[in-house]
Amino acid sequence: MDQADHASTLQPVRIAGTGSYLPEKILTNHDLEKLVETSDEWITSRTGIKERRIAADGESTSDLATNAARKALEQADIAPEDVQLIIVATITPDTLTPATACYVQEKLGAHGAVAFDVSAACSGFLYAMELAKSLIATGGRTNALIIGAEKLSAFVNWSDRNTCVLFGDGAGAAVLVPSENGGGRILSSHLGTDGRQTELLNIPGGGSCCPITIENADQQLATLAMQGREVFKHAVNAMKRASEHAIETAHLTAGDIDLVIPHQANLRIIDAIVDRLEIPKDNVFINLEKYGNTSAAAVAIALDEANRQGRIKSGDHILLVAFGAGLTWASAAIKW
Ligand code: COA
After folding, report:
1. Active-site residue, from 29, 122, 164, 190
2. CATH architecture designation of domain 186-335
3. Catalytic residue status for 122
4. Helices 267-277 and 228-249, interaxial angle, to 10°?
């Protein structure tokens, strides 16, 4: 189901700061050759990924999230104690409850903030953006910290070559505030979900329908399972449609987009989408060769890197687009 397109006529909202954090440890394709029957050539040609980051033992999703959040708050010039809302998008929470956002609130010292998680897999950061935007536009809040953070290495089956080569750990964050002068703002957004396809990509065990027990502990049920080819097809179609919706609702054309920041899962998926949208490859931001697929963190990390590398200038039109388990998809057109 697609949500009705949404070009807000309410209080406009802009991004005032971004941040990201990647753990130090690098796991290369050559390292993976020692773990499973694979090769750097296969991984690079099928996905574009060369290496990914792996969180340290004892480094949790909320640690990654907090590090990214500090940088975003610093850039936005907002003190932790003034943060009003924290939304963490993750499928790899520190604990099933409480929410990872609660740990982040404590680690930041942002004790005035309402804090909760959203679970929308790789689309999660854009779901969080839509929620935060709405709560600023209608709820009287004057800022929101949104974070995509994942420690996927804790939920990967390291003996399954179909999945273990794809994923990595990391976090990205953004601070949203009201746009006072009619300048930069989120122009449009679009969310969608198809719950008929839950089997294509999931973590089957560890939840209430399949708790991990002594009997099933050796079956790796609390790890990512995926039907890669099917996911690939859905990803291309859904991200193309979501991109078109966000562009049209913002009254733009593909030619107006200065930079596309897509979900970083697979270079072939990104190429297929931008070819269909007829957007030049130079106008697409890609960093998946360094980090692999970091799920909810991917768009957020890419947004921060594009911002800090000077790839986004005041007045530019950027398109964010994502796709993930659920199935879920999401997009946003932004004037910077
Ligand atoms: N190394 C070497 N061979 C591998 C491998 C690996 N890491 N993983 C799979 N293979 C093999 C398969 O076993 C298969 O062998 P077979 O033909 O003998 O059965 C062969 O490579 C081709 O598999 P296939 O699934 O057709 O490859 P593909 O071109 O579709 O690429 C993915 C596989 C996973 C890279 C691709 O389907 C993909 O990116 N899907 C979307 C994944 C995604 O984005 N997920 C997250 C969404 S948010």
Report:
1. 122
2. 3-Layer(aba) Sandwich (3.40)
3. yes
4. 40
